[in-house]
């Protein structure tokens, strides 16, 4: 429906693939039941990586009492996630040359080391803070694989009519981990009671109790990551014995050629910006959501529930839309336009509501909750649809390299946002305007984007 055709230069590797020259040797394809186990292990690891990354933002008030963290410290702890994307080329190269198993094992090892490092129960506060920062950075180094390998996994293991759904599950579980931290942290770690006149002794006891509860959560996360690392070490094949589709078996561009093709493709750069700007802004915005909602007199627990439902709603809606895209193909652009239009309206509503003293709009808890949750639902659910459209646009560039580039750009936007937050952390209302502007910017780019479906063409027509 309205899908434009790509240029001859863009379709050249597809129109003259190596396997067409030898029609006597057709590609045999098969799907395996073990693909669900592979998807489950990967998704659970992405879940834990997201939980560890977003651990400190939802309990910023408690962390300030337990470890003396300031708002700038919390912003830096969240910033270590995007900073972990700096060596993303290494992980993409490893995935392209050795398969997903090698890249996943290295990433999981970083997660285990990071979780262990920040869980060391030292009494000296300065050294303990350095260990916590180091652990967050090591966990961030697992981000390139956990956040960008979903489409590679779905193409390697799943049939064409299940690819978008598998991409949605693998890609959104990292966001689901961030949502879980909104609940686990505030429910287990008590918020400090600053309204009571506490004595020095009672305040010290309260801080020790908060610190013990934080330590309990970190121990639990370390145990879960260690168990998953053992499971991946025992069983996680790099690829199935036989490919599930013609596209999975087709010849791809080399690593260097892929990077050059992506950087010279204006259509890809256009849609990459449309993805990176809103998803990068909302990642940084949700990482300090408690800080954003504090001026609106929203408690730490309530802010956690808002972040939880906005992300969970986005994951559920994203899987549903991916399933719809699997059943009715060639409509990815239309789906994205509707999602981004909804995100633009919801973010504008939320921003103006937070400025009710100037706009005189009604500002109730229900309105804040609804508008904030809708923003998360529309933006987070667009991630797997974007991934599928990336791959269709630049095929035959390998999926891991394509999604590695765009997730790096998204985390670059997040990093820049959090970097500025470390300097401008007293009044954070500018974050809401950044969110609204990013949604409108992305919507305009998608409206002018000319879509094409080269991989779908191969599976549907060439295979027949």
From TrEMBL:
Membrane disposition: Multi-pass membrane protein
Any one Pfam family match given in the protein's UniProt record, by short name: MFS_1
Entry's localization field: Lysosome membrane
Transmembrane segments: 36-56, 76-95, 102-121, 141-159, 166-189, 216-236, 266-285, 305-322, 334-360, 366-391, 403-424, 430-449
Reactions it catalyzes: pyridoxine(out) + n H(+)(out) = pyridoxine(in) + n H(+)(in)
GO molecular function: transmembrane transporter activity
Domain of life: Eukaryota
GO cellular component: lysosomal membrane
Gene3D superfamilies named in the record: MFS general substrate transporter like domains
Presence of the UniProt keyword Membrane in the record: yes
Chief location: membrane
Physiological role: Mediates H(+)-dependent pyridoxine transport.
Family, as annotated: Belongs to the major facilitator superfamily.
Name this polypeptide is given: Solute carrier family 49 member 4
Organism name: Astatotilapia calliptera
Gene: SLC49A4
């Amino acid at each position: 429906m309205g899908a434009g055709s790509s240029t001859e230069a863009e379709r050249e590797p597809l129109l003259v693939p190596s396997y067409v020259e030898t029609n006597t040797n057709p590609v045999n394809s098969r799907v395996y039941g073990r693909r669900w186990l592979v998807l489950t292990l990967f998704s659970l690891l992405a879940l834990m990586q997201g939980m560890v990354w977003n651990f400190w933002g939802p309990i910023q008030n408690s962390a300030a009492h337990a470890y003396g963290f300031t708002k700038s410290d919390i912003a830096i702890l969240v910033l270590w996630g995007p900073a972990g994307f700096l060596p993303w080329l290494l992980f993409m190269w490893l995935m392209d040359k050795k398969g997903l198993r090698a890249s996943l094992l290295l990433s999981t090892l970083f997660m285990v080391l990071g979780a262990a490092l920040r869980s060391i129960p030292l009494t000296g506060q300065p050294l303990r803070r350095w260990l916590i920062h180091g652990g967050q950075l090591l966990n961030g180094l697992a981000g390139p694989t956990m956040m960008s390998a979903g489409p590679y996994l779905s193409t390697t293991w799943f049939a064409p009519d299940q690819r978008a759904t598998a991409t949605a599950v693998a890609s959104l579980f990292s966001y689901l981990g961030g949502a879980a931290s909104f609940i686990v942290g505030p429910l287990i770690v008590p918020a400090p009671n600053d309204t009571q006149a506490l004595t020095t002794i009672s305040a010290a006891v309260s801080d020790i109790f908060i610190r013990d509860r934080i330590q309990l959560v970190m121990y639990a996360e370390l145990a879960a990551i260690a168990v998953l690392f053992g499971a991946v070490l025992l069983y996680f094949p790099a690829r199935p014995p036989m490919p599930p589709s013609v596209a999975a078996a087709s010849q791809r561009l080399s690593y260097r050629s892929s990077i050059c093709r992506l950087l010279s493709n204006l259509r890809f750069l256009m849609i990459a910006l449309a993805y990176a700007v809103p998803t990068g802004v909302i990642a940084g915005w949700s990482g300090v959501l408690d800080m954003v909602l504090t001026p609106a007199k929203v408690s730490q627990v309530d802010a956690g529930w808002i972040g939880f439902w906005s992300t969970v709603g986005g994951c559920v809606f994203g899987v549903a839309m991916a399933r719809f895209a699997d059943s009715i193909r060639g409509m990815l652009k239309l789906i994205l336009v509707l999602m981004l239009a909804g995100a633009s309206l919801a973010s504008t509503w939320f921003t103006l509501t937070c400025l009710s003293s100037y706009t005189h709009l009604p500002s109730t808890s229900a309105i804040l909750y609804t508008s904030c949750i809708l923003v998360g639902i529309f933006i987070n659910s667009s991630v797997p649809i974007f991934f599928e459209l990336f791959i269709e646009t630049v095929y035959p560039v390998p999926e891991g390299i394509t999604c590695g580039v765009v997730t790096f750009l998204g985390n670059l936007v997040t990093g820049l946002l959090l970097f500025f937050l470390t300097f401008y952390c007293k009044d954070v209302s500018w974050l809401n305007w950044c969110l609204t502007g990013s949604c409108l910017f992305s919507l305009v780019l998608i409206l002018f984007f000319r879509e094409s479906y080269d991989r779908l063409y191969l599976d549907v027509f060439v295979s027949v």
